[in-house]
Design brief:
By secondary structure, the protein is α/β, with parallel strands linked by helices. Helices cover 34% and strands 12% of the residues. Strands 9-14-13-12-10-11 form a 6-stranded mixed sheet, sandwiched between helices. The protein has a 6-stranded mixed sheet with strand order 15-17-16-30-29-28, with helices on both faces. Strands 4-3-2-1-8 form a 5-stranded parallel sheet. Strand 12, helix 20 and strand 13 form a beta-alpha-beta unit. The longest helix has 17 residues.
Length: 972
Amino acid sequence: MRQIFILLFLVLTVQSVVGQSTKNPLLAKDAASQKKWVDSVYTSLTLTEKVGQLYMVQVMSNQDDTAKKNVLNQIKNHHIGGVIYSTGGPNRQAKLNNELQSFSKIPLLVGMDAEWGLSMRLDSTYAFPWNMTLGAIKNNKLVEQTGRQIGEHCKRLGVHFNFAPVVDINTNPKNPIIGNRSFGEDKDNVTEKALAFMKGMQDAGVLANAKHFPGHGDTDQDSHKTLPTIAFGAKRIDSVELYPYKKLIKEGLSSVMVAHLNVPSLERRKGYPSSLSKHIVTDILKERLAFQGLIFTDALTMKGAADFSETGDIDLAAFMAGNDVMLMSENVGIGTSKIVEACNKGKITEERLAHSVKKVLQAKYKVGLHKYQPVGLYNLSKDLNRLKDDILYEELLENAITVVKNKDDLLPIRQLETKNIAYVKLGDDTGSTFFNALKKYTKIHQIESDNLYGLIGKLKAYNTVVVGFHKSNESPWKSYQFSKQDIIWLKEIANNHTVILDAFVKPYALSELQNIDNIESIIVSYQNSKIAQQKSAQLIFGAIEAKGCLPVSVGDYFKAGEGIHINAIKRLGYTVPERVGIDSEKLNKIDAIAQRAVNGKMTPGIQLLVARKGKVIYNKNFGKHTYKGKEKVGFDDIYDVASLTKILATLPLLMELEEQGIVSLNTKLENILKDYKGTNKANVTIKTMLSHYARLRPWEPFYYRTLDTVTKRPSKKYYRKVRSDKFNIEVSKNLFLRTDYQDSIPKIIKESELLNRLKYRYSDFPYYILKKYIEGHYDRSLEELAQSHFYESLGANYTMYNPYHKISSKKIVPTEEDDYYRYQKVHGFVHDMGAAMQNGVGGHAGVFSNANDVAKIMQMYLQKGFYGGKRYLKNETIDKFNTCYYCNKNNRRGIGFDKPQLGDSGPTCGCLSMKSFGHSGFTGTYAWADPDKEIVYVFLANRTYPNAGKNLLLKENIRTDIQRLIYEAIID
């Protein structure tokens, strides 16, 4: 048996020449100076001090004084070479580290387990995605950048060694300790990811560590608790488990951690840990793989090693096996004394001792400890939680999330007008971020019940169900399995509905499902972080692509490497400003202006949104519904958008008719409305009146004619407090106008005098006229048309006329305390009197919406009529209406759209392109889109509350000053 073992080793040695040309990864660029420093320090040390350099002890920054004194004792009396920090916080660790370093004769080498960032051990620090998530990413440059940014965090905190990356190939789904910590089951993918991670981290000046040698990926036991067995033969281990090490060593890997494993094919002594095996550590790692970097034991306090021998004996055995650094010894004093004794007795030669000690010193020089500087405390927390980290995290999740099933191309969800969507949460962790992100795209209700029967009953009203499976994101070791109830409920939901299952866990969870035939679409989002939930919702609705591929196989359902690529369909996404070339610090200056407007009582509250390049980058709320109220402005609150109605409702419907050839810009009123023949407006064209260049009067106080001439209150001739057939136009709560007055308003407009001079003069009249025409053409109300042609399919479910009858009044921002017409709070009813007299549905006013919905419509315009996979309007139609036809007449207007000023003053900041367009509203609203810079800006307010009075928002240039800040924040 021994002869076979030796023969096999020789064969493998001949086969592997990978290490013959490897270089010492611990050499610094100034190798000569490094050697001089290392030799000088080494010769200055006593034997005890030299042996002390081989030890790295565990330290916690949240430990008590007794524990700290113990560490100081290790430094002073046993001359330890380094520390490995565990739990605590960054500021506490920095202070403790500076203190410990001050007591050490030779600066301490500092290590940490920071596989997915410092948060693996420390609070208040950044957590990047786990390796399993990174394993789903095709673009290895992103993994490299992850390694680099983790390295930057480590370096900033004074950490020199990060015990990462894990290079274990997780071929066992039941592995209790590796799992999410592995890049996956495919050796090439694991190697590529580990190599990229290593390169990025070492480029940042932090030394990498590949673990757990010779491979911990195919075990079903935890070496922290026992000694797991790797039962495979040497050939399999060489071709699979050792594969990443060969590649990384060749590319300059700094260190390796040897695991506590029972590997019978590589170590003939039964139950002998790999960390203590000379054959594994020296013969294979150091000689066959020719690894010249530092070799660490895994923690010697782990049961896989600690149960093996007497205290101190394990340290000596580990060193004799070829390890350089004894990590977390049970007793440093006893361990060092046994190694010193072995040196004195000649069991350990000076050459062997120098080999390891000098490697430790080389590492110290390479990380700059020959010029040690304490960790700076200023801005430490900020430096460890940077905006660039959020940006990278977003990119990683966007590239990782994997669609593994997509029957009938259900994803991304299209034709929103046909979908009644419910969200059901399974699992024991929160899905609130996911649900809120889903709601940005269309109307979705969360359905809950204590029992399955109740749940299925409530779901009958829905044809599509998004099931989110949410488990704890606290650590990669947390439970990821479906409960028995989860499995039963999911099966029953899928039997009756179209289902999208989104699993915010590692892929293995799906293997527990008995059947997936009835689940139309399955997404693996890997983690339940807020960003993962946000990005997955965006993927479902086509704001981002699906790019990821599975890093592991899932039972018989899916194989590693599988993943369905899905294109985005140009719906608004949500991200941070820098990703679209905006400086967030400059952009956030908007806050001060908006707050000044609220504090200065220019408006009780504000909704603000900025999007660029199809991504919402700023969406904040300020103030309250009213000055004296308690209701703070929320994202799903809706405002009376006043004249934005013109471009949100009437104009797009007219554009449709124009591109269908039913009307043209030169169509005259007498051609579309017979009763205009023979009037003074017969020859007015759509082009001239929507350019506000048709001599039409600005407006008419229609309501004034219906007031009692004495009391100035609604006349009993025209109004009732109770609805009836004759009084059926609801102008406000418990106030109904005569039904036949609908005919009076068009008649007044038709018979009105024209202005004496032809010049630019803004007028509401064109939209009264067009409302009558459009409704007559379709024989449907403007409200129905706007909903069916645009809002429903756009997912603009917060956009509506007459919200008082449709949603809770708590979600509607009031517009005025009316003391001249309706004599009550105008809340949920349109503020504009003329629109109110048309049952709340005007062509010029009447729409309520929130900033997010308005942005969807403006983005549709910006994308030349395309949004969410649907072509609403043709490119040329948008261009035709977004043209200033009378600029030479000192009229800036497009067809329906407002345009930037031609002189010094006007509707914009004067700092954007003439291609830009938008509109403003009397209640304080404003929406603007700029094709050149790809910017959408939405400002919603109720500056008319409690009374219209002076327009301080306009006087103080609040909206345009904010617009200027947006443009000043552009960095590319």
